[in-house]
Design goal:
mainly alpha, flat, 73% helix
Length: 151
């Protein structure tokens, strides 16, 4: 792997971070975007720091992107893409978040998929995740979430 790959990757992530930050600051009403603005500023700061570190370090990064890594990450990226661009707006934030979390958890959980006990555990973890999401976004932060066909 060359020294260019980490610089290119961190540069692309920095551009995405700046884009997300610009979007969060250009939307209204301002109260609805307070949390995204805080997160996007942190995202830009961390992405900028990572990009700066990649420029200043002289050593060549080890490893790289392998086919096994792509196979491991790709299903989650596809589910996240469907969630971001379609499901959250169509189904609603909490319904689509629950489905996306359960699918990604099921894809990466090494437990057998043919046992009721493991599915009960996955559903319990998903329910706990949904409860935390609801309490964090609706109760504590009072964030406006996308409303869709369901909640």
């Amino acid at each position: 792997m060359t020294a260019l790959q980490p610089r290119l990757a961190s540069g692309i992530i920095l551009l995405v971070a700046v884009w997300v930050c610009w979007i969060s600051f250009s939307q209204s009403p301002a109260e609805a975007f307070l949390f995204p603005r805080l997160i996007s500023v942190a995202f830009v700061a961390l992405a900028g720091w990572t990009f700066l570190r990649s420029l200043l370090e002289r050593r060549i990064a080890e490893g790289g992107v392998t086919l096994d890594l792509v196979k491991s990450i790709l299903p989650g990226v596809l589910v996240a893409g469907l969630y971001i661009f379609f499901a959250a707006k169509w189904l609603g934030f909490y319904t689509s978040s629950t489905i996306a979390f359960l699918v990604i958890l099921s894809l990466h959980d090494p437990a057998p998929h043919d046992q009721v006990r493991t599915w009960a555990r996955r559903l319990a973890i998903t329910a706990a995740y949904l409860a935390v999401m609801y309490l964090l976004f609706s109760v504590v932060l009072k964030v406006f979430t996308p409303r869709g066909l369901f909640i």
